[in-house]
């Protein structure tokens, strides 16, 4: 699960832990990992080179922080830089005041232009606008029918006529005014590849219909090529924003980074599925995680942060102190159950060291934990603090008190010894390392 950049970096930067400064020399190997991850995520080569340079400039000279793995420090810088590079994002669209606003969609055939026209119409409708979808893609006859079907599904009006694209757009504006529709979305023609005739047609619409905003729809699955497509369109048409589609597939998202870096045009929305409600505002943080291959890691970090806010600071400090001293008792262990219960325990069980071993495969964690809790509750205060004093006769009594067998109490106490050792080991680790240790 963590065969990600973090692990590679961690190995590459092991020597640095806890002392010194980050220098060009000692982070070189680490940055090679970052480069590899970016190229794997399909980020354009030139973009990667420039990006690595920037990260290096920011890293060199920084003190290696105490108690933080240097790899985390670099991942943080990389993450911040990625976010900065792709942001800021403004998902709002500005509208004209006393006339219909015209939004022009363009892109290569198959990019998802017609689908996205519908999606955008639905989004704007839910924001209280009254959109008109315009079938200006006369290149592909089926596109007109496709847009009509989409309009029907969404209950949105569709304007179409078989003249020429500029005429369709112009007449659509008149139609919108007559029918009190305030947002016109033009679904223009695409081609399999960029060609002069297409660009000419789009330029003509741009010049004569004067759209307020120009959106380029790009398929994220084409990877690096996305940046080239965006550049060519932007050079001829001066785009306002990009909509990146098919991010529900396995595209790593490198396209998002390259597009912004190469063209300077922001990404406003992303397509997350074929269905018409699958349009989302673009979020650089989510995309940065995706590019770094750390989706799961970020989720876990958030969970840990959540635990930390729900459990009082004093309690955490107390736990930390006890862990360091190896004085983690059965009472503390029990307290952790209660904390887990508060958080909807089932999915958190794996994050508590030693816990998963106490739950037989296939058993409901809640049942297993109740059993453990029963055993702890049958012990005296002194026994919970110093479990090694529990002798055979006490074990039998605890077993009887909790409806267990003496050997099961025995086994539990052995497991708890391991937990204590683990806790001591973890006391000196950073949050990332703790997560890695318990999730494998
Ligand atoms: P156009 O030629 O650019 O108008 O592209 P279409 O709108 O006809 O879309 C081409 C194909 O991509 C269709 O099968 C769509 O359902 C699909 N598609 C569009 N957007 C997305 C998306 O965000 N995710 C997925 N998985 N498929 C999409």
UniProtKB/TrEMBL annotation:
It catalyses: GTP + H2O = GDP + phosphate + H(+). SMART domains: AAA, SRP54, SRP54_N. Gene3D superfamilies: P-loop containing nucleotide triphosphate hydrolases (3.40.50.300), Signal recognition particle SRP54, nucleotide-binding domain (1.20.120.140), Signal recognition particle, SRP54 subunit, M-domain (1.10.260.30). It comes from the Bacteria. Residues 266-279 form the SRP54-type proteins GTP-binding domain. GTP binds at residues 107-114, 187-191, 245-248. One of its GO terms (biological process) is SRP-dependent cotranslational protein targeting to membrane. Transmembrane segments: none annotated. Keywords: Cytoplasm, GTP-binding, Hydrolase, Nucleotide-binding, Ribonucleoprotein, RNA-binding, Signal recognition particle. Its main location: cytoplasm. Pfam families: SRP54 (PF00448), SRP54_N (PF02881), SRP_SPB (PF02978). Its EC number is 3.6.5.4. SUPFAM superfamilies: P-loop containing nucleoside triphosphate hydrolases (SSF52540), Signal peptide-binding domain (SSF47446). It is an enzyme of class 3 (hydrolase). One of its GO terms (cellular component) is signal recognition particle. The keyword Secreted does not apply. It is found in: Cytoplasm. GO terms for molecular function: 7S RNA binding; GTP binding; GTPase activity. Composed of three domains: the N-terminal N domain, which is responsible for interactions with the ribosome, the central G domain, which binds GTP, and the C-terminal M domain, which binds the RNA and the signal sequence of the RNC. Involved in targeting and insertion of nascent membrane proteins into the cytoplasmic membrane. Binds to the hydrophobic signal sequence of the ribosome-nascent chain (RNC) as it emerges from the ribosomes. The SRP-RNC complex is then targeted to the cytoplasmic membrane where it interacts with the SRP receptor FtsY. Belongs to the GTP-binding SRP family. SRP54 subfamily. Part of the signal recognition particle protein translocation system, which is composed of SRP and FtsY. This is Signal recognition particle protein. It comes from Tuwongella immobilis. The gene is ffh.
């Amino acid at each position: 699960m963590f065969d990600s950049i973090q692990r590679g970096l961690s190995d590459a930067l092991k020597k640095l832990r806890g002392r010194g400064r980050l220098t060009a020399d000692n982070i070189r190997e680490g940055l090679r990992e970052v480069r590899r991850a970016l190229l794997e995520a399909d980020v354009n080569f030139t973009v990667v080179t420039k990006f690595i340079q920037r990260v290096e400039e920011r890293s060199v000279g920084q003190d290696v922080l105490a108690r933080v793995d240097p790899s985390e420090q670099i991942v943080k810088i990389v993450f911040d830089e990625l976010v900065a590079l792709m942001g800021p994002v403004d998902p709002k669209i500005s509208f004209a005041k006393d006339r219909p606003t015209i939004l022009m969609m363009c892109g290569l055939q198959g990019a998802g232009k017609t689908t996205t026209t519908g999606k955008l119409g639905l989004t704007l409708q839910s924001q209280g606008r009254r959109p008109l979808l315009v079938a200006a893609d006369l290149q592909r006859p089926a596109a007109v029918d496709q847009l009509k079907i989409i309009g029907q599904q969404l209950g949105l009006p569709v304007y179409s006529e078989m003249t020429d694209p500029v005429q369709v757009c112009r007449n659509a504006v008149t139609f919108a005014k007559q029918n009190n529709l305030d947002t016109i979305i033009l679904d223009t023609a695409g081609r399999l590849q960029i060609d002069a005739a297409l660009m000419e047609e789009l330029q003509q619409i741009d010049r004569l219909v004067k759209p307020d905003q120009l959106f380029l729809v790009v398929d994220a699955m084409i990877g690096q090529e996305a940046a080239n497509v965006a550049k060519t369109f932007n050079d001829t048409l001066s785009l306002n924003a990009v909509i990146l589609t098919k991010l529900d597939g396995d595209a790593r998202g490198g396209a998002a980074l390259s597009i912004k870096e190469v063209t300077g045009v922001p990404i406003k929305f992303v397509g997350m599925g074929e269905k018409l409600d699958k349009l989302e505002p673009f979020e650089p943080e989510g995309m940065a995680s995706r590019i770094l291959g750390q989706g799961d890691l970020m989720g876990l970090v958030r969970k840990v942060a959540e635990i930390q806010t729900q459990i009082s600071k004093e309690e955490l400090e107390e736990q930390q102190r006890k862990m360091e001293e190896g004085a983690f008792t059965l009472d503390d262990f029990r307290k952790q159950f209660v904390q887990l219960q508060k958080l909807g325990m089932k999915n958190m069980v794996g994050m508590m060291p030693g816990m998963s071993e106490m739950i037989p495969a296939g058993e409901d964690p809640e049942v297993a934990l109740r059993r453990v809790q029963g055993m702890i509750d049958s012990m005296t205060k002194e026994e919970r603090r110093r479990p090694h004093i529990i002798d055979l006769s006490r074990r039998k009594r605890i077993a009887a008190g909790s409806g267990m067998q003496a050997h099961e109490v025995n086994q539990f106490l052995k497991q708890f010894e391991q937990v204590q050792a683990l806790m001591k080991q973890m006391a000196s680790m950073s949050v990332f390392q703790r997560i890695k240790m318990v999730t494998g």
